[in-house]
Specification:
58% helix; 9 helices; four-stranded mixed sheet; single chain; elongated; alpha+beta
Length: 202
């Protein structure tokens, strides 16, 4: 009798351990999947930290990781710069808005040229405005030596991609943010390379 009770007890302990391990593994997977990397995790420093600049490749890597980790971010190359670097754009919004981007693009196209609406324009415009979202374009870094805005683009993107604060959620629901980390990617690297080479010299 005691042997049977001991076997049952051991079986119950094993089952409990399996369930705990399975639950812990599931929680770890969920945490890993939901983890939105902060810029310092990718760059090795926080944007704005003294004597630290990011290369354009580092900026791109950060936004690519954000795109992979967050369903609020889409990152894409729009073309090439003069020095053959990717010219890139992050589109940031609520996941349900990103799923309907083509529809919102069409709405913007029609509102930009009301001649396409034909007759009864006023009513059609009102309906389009009610269906559409506010589009916010943020461009950073047109002048290569003004490094702050390109660095801060990563902080802005991280906040929008990771925060569950009510005001951030409201922004994401009601707007589609087009964030250009730099209008001058070649200048980002020219300045960083010069800065790294001369840092600490007379």
């Amino acid at each position: 009798m005691r042997t049977r009770q001991l076997v049952l007890l051991l079986a119950a302990i094993c089952l409990f351990q399996i369930l705990v391990a399975t639950e812990t593994s599931a929680q770890q997977r969920a945490q890993s999947a939901s983890h939105i990397p902060a810029p310092e995790e990718v760059l090795g420093f926080r944007p704005g930290e003294d004597r630290k600049l990011a290369s354009w490749k580092q900026v791109l890597t950060y936004f690519e990781k954000l795109d992979q980790a967050s369903d609020r971010v889409r990152f894409e190359a729009l073309g090439k710069t003069t020095m053959d670097a990717p010219f890139a754009l992050a589109t940031i919004s609520a996941p349900e808005n990103l799923a309907r981007l083509d529809e919102y693009r069409k709405i913007q196209e029609l509102l930009a040229d009301p001649r396409k609406l034909g007759s009864n324009r006023d009513e059609k415009e009102r309906r389009l405005l009610a269906r559409g979202k506010t589009i916010v374009l943020i461009t950073c870094g047109i002048h290569s030596s003004e490094v702050g805005s390109t660095l801060s683009s990563m902080l802005i993107a991280h906040q929008l991609a990771s925060s569950n604060a009510p005001e951030v959620q409201e922004i994401l629901r009601n707007t589609i943010i087009l964030l250009v980390p730099s209008l001058n990617p070649d200048g980002v690297d020219i300045v960083k390379n010069w800065y790294d080479k001369t840092l600490g010299t007379p």
